[in-house]
Amino acid sequence: MTPLALDAQTSLAASNLAALQQRTTGAAKARAQAEEFEAVFLSTMFQHMFTGIGDEGPLGNSQAVGVWRSFLTDAYGKSLAKRGGIGLAEPVYRSLIAQQEIAK
Which of 15, 23, 52, 96 is the most buried (most CB within 10 A)? Predict the structure, then answer.
């Protein structure tokens, strides 16, 4: 092979590698966004679940109850989504990937 042919092959391989890395990075970002979406959804559902509890509990009737419960519901949502969630992240991920393919 001539040096020119090797340079062309090296250039092609480098561009293929860059495209693969970009797709991998895009897929990882899409996966993270899908999981974050599911975590926010679950946190919202947990907030609605806790609204009926009222002022009962160890904190009683103070302003700290609302703040503490918001942190608690966020933590519940993130934890559940990280462990597989309710199956919402996967279709959101597929939709994000499909939208990326259409945009190309």
Answer: 96
